[in-house]
Amino acid sequence: MNDLFDKLTGDQDVFKKLASKIPGFNGYIERQNRRAADKILRETVADKYEDLWKRVSALQTDLISQGGLEFVDDMEKASIQLRTFVDKIRTATYGYSGFFDAVKINEEEIAKLYAFDNAFFDHAETINNAIDNVETSLSDEAGLPAAIRNLVTVSRESVDTYNHRYEVLTSTDES
User: Fewer CB within a 10 Å sphere, N or C end of the chain?
Assistant: First the structure.
């Protein structure tokens, strides 16, 4: 995430570089850059999880066409969790300093949140692997229920992780 922030900072035009020398104005520019970086991060995470949600939806269609109606409700649980996560990410306010109006966080806390946000990418890979497992198990009715349960669990963890991030963010205000 620091690479993204550095890129945004490095691409500032001459006026912004000059204005950043004005006392007090540098903090404003830095906050704006962090907001821009946060927006790009959120859009990227949401897009990645949207693709995963589409894969789960396609699997539901496959299950229906193959006569696996008994599994569709369980797949819907995973789908709902992923859709909820995507919606939370897409509708959250951009920028760390304004994420929740009353919350003010410092650079060290921002770094923790960036590391936390990076975990969303790792978790997306876990979900992707769980979806692959369901796809592989479509022809194995004995293994399919366990694969779906795993997918539901890892999909739910996305929402739980997002909620935990919120708790981390709001707990910084109390410190």
Answer: C
